[in-house]
Structure formats: C-alpha cells, structure tokens
Amino acid sequence: MLSRLSRTASRRSTSRIANVSRRWFVQPSTADRASVVEIPSSYQDETHLTPRADMLGFKLEIPRREGSLAEKIRPIYLDMQATTPVDPRVLDAMLPYLTDQYGNPHSRTHAYGWEAEQAVEDARKYLADLIGADPKDIVFTSGATESNNMAIKGVARFHKEKKRHIITTQTEHKCVLDSCRKLGEEGFDITYLSVGNNGVISLDELEAAIRPDTSLVSIMTVNNETGVIQPIKEIGALLRKHRGIYFHSDAAQAVGKIPVDVNEMNIDLMSISGHKLYGPKGIGAIYVRRRPRVRLEPILSGGGQERGLRSGTLPAALVVGLGEAARIAKKEMKVSIFHIIRVWDRDHARIQRLSDRLITNINSQVEHVVRNGDVNGYPGCVNLSFSYVEGESLLMALKDIALSSGSACTSASLEPSYVLRALGAAEDMAHSSLRFGIGRFTTEAEVDFVVNHIIRTVQRLRDMSPLWEMVQEGIDINAIDWSQH
Ligand SMILES: Cc1ncc(COP(=O)(O)O)c(C=O)c1O
C-alpha cells in the first residue's frame, strides 16, 4: 500500500516527497547539488524514492560563511540565561517530526495526524511531570513572553468588571512589566513591589498591597539577571488565604533548573520557555489550573486549539523538543544510588560546583567585587559588579567570552539595569556588572579560562583608571564632593 502511494506520489512531486521523507534531504545547498551523494541502502527500498542529485543536502554542522563567527574562534559561551544550547538528545527526538512524521497534530482523519498528536500528548505529559501538574493543565505557546502576556492580560481582562488591581514586582522580566504597563493604559491599577538589597520581596509588603479588587499577583520564580529566587511557596500559601486572587509565576529561568511543583507552591498559572531548559526556541507553555478553574480571556482568536486558550496549529517538532527537554531535566534530578531513589540533581550539583569555583577564584584574586542578589539564588546565574572599571570597556575587553551585562533582552540600551537599580546598586556598579550564565555543558576548563581572563582584564583596566589610583593612595572616593572639581 505504502509503495503504491509512494509511486503515485512520485509522478506528481518527486522532489517534495524525497525532501521530507529522508532525514538528511532537507536543505540542498549549491555545493551539494553539484555532487552526487551516496544513498544509504536502507532508503533504497521500494517505500522510498531514489533521490536525484538536486535533492541532496542537509548537513548537521555550522554553515561556514567567509568572515562569519564560525570561521573564527568562537567565544566561550557563558550566557545561559539568554538561551541554552539544544541538548543533542532533544534534537534527536525532534528530527523525525521535521521529516517523516510531519502530520498536523490537529488532523483527526489519518495516521499522520494521529502520530503527531500522540507525540504532542507525550510531550505534554513529560512537561506536566516536571512541574507536578496534570497534563490537561498544560497549554503550549511560543515561549514565556507569550505565556506571560496571556496570563497577565488574560486574567485581568476576564475579571475586569469586578477587579481592576494587579500586583507584581519591580524586578520582573520586561514582558511582564510591559504587559502590566499596557493594562495600566486600559485603566487597571498596578502595584510594583520593591525588593530588598538581596532582591527578595517582603511577604508583609505583599500582604499589605492586597485589595478587595486584586485579581492577580505575578511574581517570577528565578530572576534572569541575578538568579534571585523568590519565596514562591510562602507567597502561594499567603495568597491561598485570600480567595479569588490568582497567583502567576514567570518560571522561565526556574523550570528544569530547580524543583518546581505547582501544587506544593499553590501556583495557578506558570510560564515556561523551551530554550531556557536545553530545548528549542519558539516554544513554551503556560500552566493554567483547571481545578479550581482559572478563567482568562484568550489573546488569540482562531481554531480553538489548546482548550480554546491558544488557537493555532501546534509545531509538533518543537513541542516534542520541549517535552524531551523536560523529560531529561526530570531524569537528571532523580538518580538512583545503590538502589535507593534519592532526589539528587546532577545538573544542579555540577553547576553549583562550577559556580563556586568561579566566585571563589575571582574573589580570591580581585578586590572590590560585589555579588548582586541573594547568595542563595540559582547558582547558574552569577551577577558580579567590578568597582573602578568602566562597564563598557570591560565587556569590550572580554570579547573571548559570550556573556551579558544585565539582561540580554535589555543590553542593547545603555541604561543601567533596572533590576540591579531595584536592588539598590549604585549606577556605576550597575553599569560595571557582568552576568555569568553557567549551564549543563559548561566545563571546568572554560570556567578557569574565564576566571584568568577576568583577573587580567580587570587589573589592566584598573591600572588605567585615575579613580583606582586614588583608591590605592588611600583616598576615600565616596567622601569627595565632585561638584567642587
Ligand atoms: C524570566 C524570563 N521571562 C521571560 C522570558 C522570555 O522568554 P521567551 O524567550 O521564551 O519568550 C525570558 C527570556 O529572557 C526570561 O528570562
């Protein structure tokens, strides 16, 4: 049957079918068209078409264009909060859904749809398992930006007749703050909670901010600039006492990195991003509790997929990638030692060790370094400010290391980071901050290279700084009245 189908199809559209039915026949390049590639025998049976020379291609390697980064030495990647590399196991799981199994998961009338749907449902289960949720409560989106927009605007607009107050914090990601700003323009009242010097909110301040017309509290789990972890379980318990207030958490930097359980933490809505946990970009999810049911107005209108909350065809391959990333993250957290199942997070333990190594070695050799945020934050995000060096010069001098000063999403602007300012950091210290993002694939050798490079660079820049010279001479810089000079 399949062979008859293939042969019929071959008369119509040989190249299209060959392109999708073979794993490595996806993107023919000019060079590939010029040469004939050997076809593996497993693909030469009658169920597959024999590809012609013009259908060849698909190499799993970085394209090397003249002058591109790939031609030069690539910097060491320490920017894991901006994005994480796709775990090879994730890519393996995704590939069949980009090639052979290309069905629309919403097609109900044939096997192509059913197999894609099955893969999507498996992924939903893996993600739900990771956060202690029911799979039915998971809605796939394009990423945490969409999930945050959906949670904040969706809940606020649904309840707008009776409730028009929202509480969030000053250190949220831009997409949360901007969603709130938009609601402010629509007539909602927003309270932005301040944070202490350690970046953590005060539960008393939160409780005092609650009003009878509060519909939503949105507080992130792990901060993307400082790694600060908010007391989510305590916030959840506090909000449970106030009926009718939904609790949303942007957990883009937390899921897959630290244990998160929506029931233990009393979370009603939670945002997740694929590319922060070694999955692909362009996919994310939102947890929306069904019992008791969270009511929200969908942002998109359309086919009513995903419980009517997020219309649009699901990108099965990306969903599978997110599911596999979640499955791996969960597996890494539970390791059997001597037949005793113990919760022992292998990723976390490695990252903690590398993080300690980075901080200890920098601190032991460079003076006047301040760690921004709570020391008990997520260890894979280390934010350090270097006094008496100019932030821009520091970043320029560290071209061999891919890292961020402040959030990657805001680093295009020269404004000092609003997150660090909210923690009380002086403007110059916020400017001279660097965020070191350590992840699953970071090595000890990379950390050592970075430490040595930082030590040398900070010393060199300070040697050129008149301020540093004054400090060395024992002058108290803070006591100087600069307006007199
Ligand atoms: C805390 C936080 N929330 C939301 C986002 C946005 O995530 P996405 O890229 O999936 O839209 C990011 C990404 O930087 C983030 O760090």
Describe this structure in words.
By secondary structure, the protein is α/β, with parallel strands linked by helices. It folds into two domains: 91-330, Type I PLP-dependent aspartate aminotransferase-like (Major domain) (Aspartate Aminotransferase, domain 2, 3-Layer(aba) Sandwich); 346-473, Aspartate Aminotransferase, domain 1. It is built from 15 helices and 14 strands. The strands form four sheets. Strands 2-8-7-6-5-3-4 form a seven-stranded mixed sheet, sandwiched between helices. A three-stranded antiparallel sheet has the order 11-12-14. Strands 1-13 form a two-stranded parallel ribbon. The longest helix has 21 residues, at 111-131. It starts with a helix and ends in a 13-residue tail after the last helix. Pyridoxal-5'-phosphate binds at residues 81, 143-145, 173, 175, 220, 224, 250, 252-253, 273, 284, 409. Pyridoxal-5'-phosphate is lined by residues 81, 143-145, 173, 175, 220, 224, 250, 252-253, 273, 284, 409.
Secondary structure: helix percent: 25-40%
Structural class: alpha/beta
Strand order of the largest sheet: 2-8-7-6-5-3-4
Number of strands: 14
Proportion of strand residues: 5-15%
> Given the C-alpha coordinates, what overall shape results?
globular
Residue-averaged pLDDT, rounded? 85
Cα Rg: 26 Å
**Unreliable sequence segments:** 1-61, 407-411
Overall CATH class of the largest domain: Alpha Beta
Bound ligand species: pyridoxal-5'-phosphate
Main beta sheet: strand number and arrangement?
7 strands, mixed
Q: What is the architecture of the largest domain at the second tier of CATH?
A: 3-Layer(aba) Sandwich
Distance between the termini: 88 Å
CATH fold category name of the largest domain = Aspartate Aminotransferase, domain 2
Corresponding CATH superfamily of the largest domain? Type I PLP-dependent aspartate aminotransferase-like (Major domain)
Give me the strand/helix succession.
Answer: HHEHHEHEHEHEHEEEHEEHEEHEHHEHH
- Helix tally? 15
Tell me the count of domains.
2
Enzyme class: transferase
GO cellular component, one term: mitochondrion
EC number: 2.8.1.7
Cofactor: pyridoxal 5'-phosphate
